[in-house]
Amino acid sequence: MKLSLIVPCYNEAENVELFQEETIKAFQGCGYSFEIIYVDDGSADATLHNLRKLHAGGKCPVKVISFSRNFGKEAGLYAGLQYASGDYISLIDADLQQRPEIVREMVQFLDENPDYDVVAAYQDRRNEGKVLSFFKKSFYRIINKMSHVTLQPEASDFRTFRKSVRDSILTLGEYHRFSKGIFAWVGYKTHFIPYTACQRAFGTTKWSFKKLMNYAIEGIIGFSTAPLRLATFLGSISGIAAVLYLIAVVLQKLFWGIDVPGYATIIVLILFFGSVQLFCIGIIGEYVGRIFEQSKNRPIYIAKEILLPPDET
Ligand code: UDP
Ligand code: MG
Asked: Looking at the whole model, is its pTM more than 0.90?
């Protein structure tokens, strides 16, 4: 039995060596072999240099895939999955916020429960601000209402699954990748375990509020067409309102005559419907933009360097 650990790394020079040491320690005497697949996501620091050292050091089988630029964590996970050869596959961050000991527990669970295919960790306690927490909760509420897949709130990418799940995920070759949605979409019986994220070993988070917002929009657009229906909905409502207003105006004209010019009404109506139309075009634009990007059929990532263990080259 073999386990593949996929570790996306973006500017994690100080973390990768520590991660490797802690992982080897955590898996001592586990009774199965494991490989670590590091994906260097176009880091600007010494990450690749350190990964080359880990590969050459030979303490455990190491694969390194180095991107030609920063393609994002999602692309990194995809590349890692392509190179994973284990019977079990784990996704774990390089910053040791997610402990390798938990991966060992996940593997044990899958071993003891053959009818489960995935063990996913979710954060039971989060050390984050109220505003961010509110936005995250709202995101899950919205996407679960709009989409045909159900996302487990708080569930992270931190998970371990069988080879069959990996094969299924790889069949989804979409350019705009939203892992949480992809995991939910492929299905499989999933066991959720709580975990508390530790402090980052070194460095700072790569996720700004803006990046998180974009990621949330990616998720909603990628897994739901409900926003497109908003135009139909708003159009119908304003259509009905327009007919009612028309009747009112005709009656007013017939019985009382119209004495006010209605300047304000006209301006407000023009501005209101103008903005509703632009808003709806904007939504359609989000989808069209993604169709455009997908139709170009560009690769999800470009690897400039790939290091494999000596027996696999
Ligand atoms: N990461 C990546 N590419 C990116 C951003 C992040 O590969 O463009 C990696 C990063 O090196 C880390 C993991 O994704 O191993 C999670 O990132 P981070 O720790 O910044 O996120 P957080 O834990 O704060 O959610
Ligand atoms: Mg982190």
From this structure: no
End-to-end CA distance of the chain: 21
Cβ-Cβ contacts under 8 Å for 78 (sequence gap 6 or more)? 170, 177, 300, 301
185-224 pLDDT, tens digit per residue, is: 998 999 999 888 887 878 888 788 888 888 888 888 888 8
Amino acid, single-letter form, for residue 36: I
Give the Cα separation of 272 and 284 in Å (integer): 19
Atom of ligand 1 nearest to the CA of 71: 8
Minimum-distance ligand 1 atom for the alpha carbon of 12: 11
The DSSP code for 87 is S
User: Number of C-alpha atoms within 13 angstroms, CB side, residue 32?
Assistant: 16
Is there an atom of ligand 1 within 6 Å of 93 CB?
yes
Atom from ligand 1 closest to the CA of residue 197: 23
Q: Which residue among 10, 123, 198, 300 is best mutated to probe the pocket of ligand 1, counting the most ligand atoms within 8 A of its Cβ?
A: 10
Answer yes or no: is the C-beta of 80 below 6 A from any ligand 1 atom: no
pLDDT digits over 266-308, tens only?
A: 888 888 888 888 888 999 999 999 999 899 989 999 999 999 9
Q: Is the dihedral of CA 247, 249, 250, 254 positive or negative?
A: positive
